[in-house]
C-alpha cells in the first residue's frame, strides 16, 4: 500500500492512485472529486466580501428542495440551535446530505464550491474521504452521507441586483448564516449585508489520521508546526514545551465562545524573522480554506496583534510520529491540534475566534 511519508514545504497529501483498484473507495472519491468539474467561480475580492456566487448558489440549492426538506434546512437567524456545534458523531439539526436526490446533491455541491476556496474544497474532500462508514449503535452512524446542512435566515445574493421573474430587482440586504457539520467536520459562516463576517468555529478531524490509500488530510498543518518546533533554540523550545502534558483532545471546547488556555508557550515576540514567518504561515494556511476576501479582517487582525500576546505551545512527543499536541493562542485567534492517542491515528484541528462567532444569535 502507498503511504504518505512526508509533506514538502508547499505540498499537501493527495488522494492515492491505489484507490482506483477498490470499487467502493472509487465511488466514494468520485463523489467528492466531482465538485471540481462544476466550474463554479470562486473569484476573490478585497475586504470581507463573500464570493459573488455564494448567496445565489445557496438559493439555487434551496429551490431544489421539497417543502419538508426546506423546513429542515432553514431556520431563523436566532434559532435555538444557532451557536451550538460539535465534532462528535450523531444526528444534527438541518438536512442530512444522505437524504438528497442526485440533482439536489449537485446543487449542494455547487453551493459548497462557491462558498469555499479551491484549497478549502479540496481539504474538505480529503477529510470526508477518510471518514469510515460505520454503525455505532443507537442510530449513530458515520460516513459520507452523515453530514447536515443548515441555513439560518434567508440567503440573499451578494450582488446589488438579482433576476426575479425576468425583471431586475434590488437584492435584499440582511444577515444569514450556514453550517455544514457531522463527525470530524464543522464549517460555520455568517454573512451580513453581502460580507462574510464570521467563518468559525472551523473544525477538521481524521480517524484514521493517516489512511493507507487516501493519505493524511491534516499533514499540511501538523508538519508545518513540527518544522517550527525544530527551528527553535533550546531556550525557545523549553518555553514552547512548557505547557504541560499533552491533553487528550483540543481544549478550547465546543461552546459558543472558546475556552482560553493561555498558560505557557513561546512568545511570538521572541521568534526570529524566519520563525515568525513559519508561525504566520501556520495560521494563514487554515484561513486559506475560505476565499481570500472573506478572511481579510482576520488576517489584518492577526498582523496587528501584539506579538507579546501570541504564544506557540507544543506538548508530548517532540516529533509528530509520537502522541503530541500543539496550539497557537492569541487574543483574537485560537488554533489547536491534537493527535495524542497512543496510536497517533486520531487527529483534531480547530480554529476559533474569540469575539465574533455566531453574530446575530
Structural commentary:
- The protein has 361 residues and is an alpha+beta fold.
- It folds into two domains: 17-205, no CATH class; 219-353, no CATH class.
- 27% of the residues lie in helices and 22% in strands.
- It is built from nine helices and 16 strands.
- The chain has helices at 23-33, 54-63, 67-73, 102-115, 118-130, 219-231, 234-240, 273-287, 296-304; strands spanning 74-75, 95-96, 134-137, 140-142, 147-152, 161-164, 167-170, 175-182, 185-192, 195-198, 202-206, 266-267, 311-316, 324-329, 333-339, 347-353.
- The strands form three sheets. Strands 1, 2, 5, 8, 9, 10, 11, 12, 13, 14, 15 and 16 form a twelve-stranded mixed sheet that branches. Strands 3-4 form a two-stranded antiparallel sheet. The protein has a two-stranded antiparallel sheet with strand order 6-7.
- A hairpin with a 3-residue loop joins strand 14 and strand 15 (333-339).
Strand content range: 15-25%
Radius of gyration: 20 Å
Low-confidence stretches: 1-47, 160-172
Strand/helix succession: HHHEEHHEEEEEEEEEHHEHHEEEE
* Overall geometry: globular
Task: Give the end-to-end Cα distance, rounded to a whole number of Å.
Answer: 48 Å
Query: Count the strands?
Result: 16
Tally of domains? 2
Major pleated sheet: 12 strands, mixed
Share of helical residues? 25-40%
Structural class: alpha+beta
By DSSP (H or I, 4+ residues per run), the number of helices equals 9
Mean pLDDT: 83
Could you name the key traits of this structure?
9 helices, two-stranded antiparallel ribbon, 2 domains, 16 strands, alpha+beta, 361 residues, twelve-stranded mixed sheet, 22% strand
Amino acid at each position: 500500500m502507498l503511504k504518505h511519508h512526508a509533506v514538502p514545504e508547499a505540498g499537501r497529501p493527495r488522494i492515492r492512485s491505489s484507490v482506483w483498484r477498490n470499487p467502493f473507495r472509487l465511488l466514494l472519491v468520485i463523489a467528492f472529486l466531482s465538485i471540481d468539474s462544476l466550474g463554479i467561480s470562486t473569484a476573490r475580492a478585497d475586504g470581507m466580501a463573500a464570493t459573488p456566487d455564494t448567496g445565489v448558489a445557496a438559493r439555487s440549492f434551496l429551490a431544489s428542495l421539497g417543502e419538508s426538506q426546506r423546513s429542515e434546512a432553514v431556520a431563523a437567524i436566532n434559532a435555538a440551535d444557532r451557536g451550538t456545534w460539535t465534532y462528535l458523531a450523531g444526528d444534527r439539526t438541518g438536512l442530512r446530505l444522505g437524504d438528497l436526490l442526485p440533482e439536489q446533491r449537485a446543487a449542494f455541491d455547487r453551493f459548497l464550491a462557491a462558498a469555499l476556496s479551491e484549497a478549502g474544497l479540496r481539504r474538505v474532500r480529503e477529510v470526508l474521504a477518510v471518514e469510515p462508514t460505520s454503525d455505532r449503535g443507537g442510530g449513530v452512524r458515520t460516513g459520507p452521507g452523515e453530514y447536515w446542512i443548515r441555513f439560518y435566515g434567508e440567503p440573499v445574493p451578494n450582488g446589488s441586483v438579482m433576476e426575479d421573474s425576468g425583471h431586475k430587482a434590488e437584492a435584499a440586504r440582511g444577515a444569514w448564516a450556514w453550517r455544514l457539520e457531522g463527525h470530524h467536520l464543522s464549517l460555520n459562516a455568517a454573512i451580513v449585508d453581502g460580507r462574510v463576517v464570521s467563518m468559525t468555529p472551523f473544525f477538521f478531524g481524521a480517524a484514521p489520521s493517516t489512511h493507507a490509500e487516501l493519505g493524511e488530510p491534516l499533514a499540511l498543518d501538523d508538519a508545518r508546526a513540527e518544522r517550527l518546533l525544530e527551528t527553535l533554540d533550546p531556550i525557545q523550545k523549553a518555553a514552547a514545551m512548557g505547557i504541560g502534558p499533552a491533553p487528550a483532545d483540543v481544549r478550547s471546547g465546543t461552546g459558543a465562545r472558546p475556552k482560553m488556555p493561555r498558560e505557557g508557550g513561546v512568545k511570538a515576540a521572541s521568534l526570529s524573522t524566519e520563525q515568525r514567518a513559519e508561525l504566520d504561515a501556520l495560521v494563514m494556511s487554515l484561513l486559506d480554506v475560505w476565499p481570500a476576501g472573506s478572511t481579510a479582517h482576520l488576517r489584518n487582525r492577526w498582523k496587528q496583534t501584539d506579538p507579546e500576546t501570541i504564544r506557540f505551545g507544543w506538548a508530548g512527543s517532540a516529533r509528530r510520529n509520537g502522541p503530541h499536541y500543539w496550539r497557537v493562542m492569541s487574543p483574537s485567534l485560537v488554533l489547536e491540534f491534537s493527535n495524542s492517542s497512543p496510536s497517533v491515528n486520531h487527529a483534531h484541528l480547530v480554529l476559533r475566534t474569540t469575539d465574533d462567532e455566531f453574530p446575530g444569535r
